[in-house]
Design a protein that fits this description.
With about 180 residues, the chain is α+β, with helices and mostly antiparallel strands. The chain has helices at about 10-20, 30-35, 55-60, 85-95, 145-170, and strands at about 45, 70, 80, 100, 115-120, 175.
């Protein structure tokens, strides 16, 4: 498997094009909106996944698996200032982040922190094969297919978090899918 990270544009058109060309991509679904999630309660972590279903549709359309991954400690690398919701609106409109963050010495240097990447088993979109091995997957995903795979993906992320939070020292933390 080849993984290509597309750092420029994660739009539907670009993701569709990359997958059509046979590339495998990594997507962090939070984006700008996740930067504006209310500041964390000390015992809560947040994953903005509840309305992020586009990548699920792409997985079904192209017949590629989705691999759930959670990174422990990512929320500790920088601190950010709480800003009014206007900044989120403006950031989405301009397609850039207007979130003010800081790290070591108040600079954009990340705080030194241990990161733990946990990788779950791949989730394969449902396919059906004919007797001669031809794929007959319906490439346009139904709402039920998308919802079912999305629910499995969110459950796997929660499971990864709960199974590995003790190893990271976050035994009192909870992951909230929002």
């Amino acid at each position: 498997m080849i993984i290509i990270y597309v750092s420029s544009d994660a739009s539907k058109i670009e993701v569709d094009r990359a997958l059509s060309l046979g590339s495998r991509i990594g997507v962090s679904p939070g984006g700008i909106a996740e930067m504006f999630v209310p500041l964390n309660h000390p015992n809560d972590e947040y994953a903005l996944l509840s309305n992020r279903k586009g990548i699920i549709r792409m997985s079904i359309k192209h017949g590629v698996p989705i691999v759930p991954i959670f990174v422990f400690g990512g929320s500790k690398t920088f601190h950010r200032l709480g800003l009014p919701s206007f900044f989120e609106y403006l950031s989405n409109m301009l397609r850039i982040s207007l979130c003010f963050f800081y790290g070591k010495w108040g600079l954009p240097i990340p705080f030194r922190t241990k990161l733990l990447y946990v990788i779950g088993a791949p989730l394969f979109p449902a396919t059906s094969l004919t007797e001669d091995g031809q794929d007959t997957t319906k490439r346009i995903a139904s709402t039920n297919q998308v919802d079912a795979l999305h629910r499995m993906f969110c459950d796997r992320i929660l499971d990864l978090f709960d199974r590995h939070k003790f190893a990271y020292g976050w035994e009192n933390k909870h992951l909230n899918i929002i």
